[in-house]
TrEMBL record:
Gene: LOC101497767
Organism listed in the record: Cicer arietinum
Name listed for the protein in its UniProt record: Ubiquinol oxidase
Gene Ontology molecular function, alphabetical: alternative oxidase activity; metal ion binding; superoxide-generating NADPH oxidase activity; ubiquinol:oxygen oxidoreductase activity
Region spans: Disordered: 63-82
Record text on subunit structure and interactions: Homodimer; disulfide-linked.
Membership in a protein family: Belongs to the alternative oxidase family.
Names of the cofactor(s): Fe cation
Length: 338
């Protein structure tokens, strides 16, 4: 049983890929799902079927389920048990309304709604830098510069792969900060000043960067393993750091975002010089950033870089608030600041 569970965790981490619940990417999912189920039954002697069933139930929203998957569901529907689940889902009123794009076409995404999309503010100053003023700033700055060394060695100028991997880390601080502020708000019976939402918005925005990059770069098995290890270490390290000193934690993120702006600038240089092909933008990026239908990779990287500059400003601002002896809730939270 333990062996089966371990196999499942490793397989799920390495085999499962995008899970954005869109019609486009769902086209390949029935084949992948069938493959996973086949392997589950072979390796687990039947236990994998249970996990597969759970996965299907968790990840599928009724109205968006493609025809191929509906057909796959039908044998279980005859048994009566699954039919009950469909009725229960309908009973709770959880169904996706028909949503249209501005041009009248059907909205294909379940992972984000039109209200979550935005036009990137391209007027942001990309050159801004927080000069380290005190000991804590210098620790944060030097620490981030040190972290950059192994990244440069590992990825060199493979900026696509580098961006994809670093986005798996970049989406962690906002979630940790938002979660800790949420718990603090509950503990102290006080408002957060909007900062919980602001930090969670940042985490979600970073995750959308990842969902975009993974459409462009397919992670290899050892990169997936690396993400598992890095996430385990980084989440816990940042969690402890945020509890000990949110001022230092936000400053570290501010400098990480400065590095992200630099990395995406280098990525753009490679696209402009032809080293990296300026391929058409993924559909998810066109809808999320409201880009023109004929947008290219260069347009996507440009808006992602603008997002990173916004994150830089938010986190340096948050650190400055703490530096002045205030709490975040005492300053206006940068909500919907992209
Ligand atoms: Fe990002
Ligand atoms: Fe960022």
């Amino acid at each position: 049983m333990k062996h089966s569970a371990l196999c499942y965790v490793v397989r799920r981490a390495l085999v499962s890929g995008r899970n954005c619940n869109c019609h486009g990417s769902a086209v390949v999912r029935p084949f992948l799902a069938a493959k996973i189920r086949q392997r589950s039954f072979c390796v687990d002697g039947g236990n994998g079927g249970f996990f597969y069933w759970k996965r299907m139930m968790a990840s599928q929203a009724g109205p968006s389920m493609p025809e191929a998957e509906k057909k796959e569901e039908s044998p279980r529907t005859k048994s009566g048990k699954s039919e009950k689940n469909v009725v229960v889902s309908s009973y709770w009123g959880i169904s996706k309304p028909k949503i249209k794009r501005e041009d009248g076409t059907e909205w294909p995404w379940n992972c984000f709604m039109p209200r979550d999309t935005y036009k990137s503010n391209m007027s942001i100053d990309l050159t801004k830098h927080h000069a380290p003023k005190n000991f804590m700033d210098k620790v944060a700055y030097k620490g981030v510069k040190l972290l950059r060394i192994p990244t440069d060695v590992f990825f060199k100028r493979q900026y696509g792969c580098r961006a994809m991997m670093l986005e798996t880390v970049a989406a962690v601080p906002g979630m940790v900060g938002g979660m800790l502020l949420h718990l603090k708000s509950l503990r102290k019976f006080q408002q957060s000043g909007g900062w919980i939402k602001a930090l969670l918005e940042e985490a979600e925005n970073e995750r959308m960067h990842l969902m975009t990059m993974v459409e462009l770069v397919k992670p290899k098995w050892y990169e997936r393993l690396l993400v598992l290890a890095v996430q385990g270490v980084f989440f816990n390290a940042f969690f402890v750091l945020y509890i000990l000193s949110p001022k230092l934690a936000h400053r570290v993120v501010g400098y990480l975002e400065e590095e992200a702006v630099h990395s995406y600038t280098e990525y753009l240089k490679d696209i402009e010089s032809g080293v990296v092909e300026n391929v058409p933008a993924p559909a998810i990026a066109i809808d999320y950033w409201r880009l023109p239908k004929d947008a290219k990779l260069k347009d996507v990287i440009t808006v992602i870089r603008a997002d990173e500059a916004h994150h830089r400003d938010v986190n340096h601002f948050a650190s400055d608030i703490h530096f002045h002896g205030k709490e975040l809730r005492e300053a206006p939270a940068p909500l919907s600041y992209h």
